[in-house]
Amino acid sequence: MENKTLDSLESIEIIQRMITATHDKFKRSGGTLLLAGGYATLFFAALVTLLSHLTTAHSIYYLWWGIPVAVAVAAFIVFRRESRRTPQVRTFIDRCVGYVWLTVGSVAVLYPLVGFIHPAANFMVVPTEALLMGTGAILTGLIIRFPPITAGGIVALILGFAMFLFDDWYLYLFMAMIVFAIIIPGHILNYKGKCSDR
Amino acid sequence: MFRPLDPLLHSELRLAVVSLLAGVESADFTFIKEQTRATAGNLSVQIDKLAQAGYIAVTKGYKGKKPQTLCRITPAGIEAFRDYLEALKSYIPTSMR
What we know:
The structure holds two protein chains of two kinds. Chain A is about 80% helix and about 0% strand. Chain A is mostly helical.
């Protein structure tokens, strides 16, 4: 691109091209972050499920606290790697999605603390976390206009409510929720990101 | 009646930079260079002109150990871009709008 003057149609063509360049930019880091968080959550959920069959000790449920730690570490590594590898651009959509997950994430981390005050609330922690993740996923999907994430969020809400009804199966339903709401959309987002980079 | 077009924006590269920044919150020099396919030298000169006019704000810093130039459109830049688009409409035949 040079520094020549333009006619009106050339001006419109440039404006259109530049605006499209920012709108259609699927961020690969978004998919990678979903996958890192999704697999970390799935690992801890599977570990708790396995241990719940082997022991009756309630201390195994403290392993749930591994999830926010693993997600925070994964987010730090992904953002650091992406910021070094790719040119930086921050859109208004990035900011909106960031605020959604800051809110959802804060509630998701703070809510289980209620269980320390009212032990009866512990029963509801996992289904409520699923509902929170579903809400975050639906909002993210709608903001970035990416139907697989919205669909995953709807599945998470359905499975979250199902956990209240089928409480014997809540750990399996939670793992299914992670796969459908986070891991599968994460792979699709990464695939789209690779396609848009070509 | 044709409305005058802002000469600062009515140039291929400067218009591309402002159009790009109008759609994002901030973008670094490398991203703008990739999208506009301009040379670093030419892009740098045009960014300076836009910054001097107050249309964009430029922040120089470091990303790790590498220098990073972040650009952001200013309210004056948004206003100028909006006026440019309005003026541009008068050059387009009614049948094409």
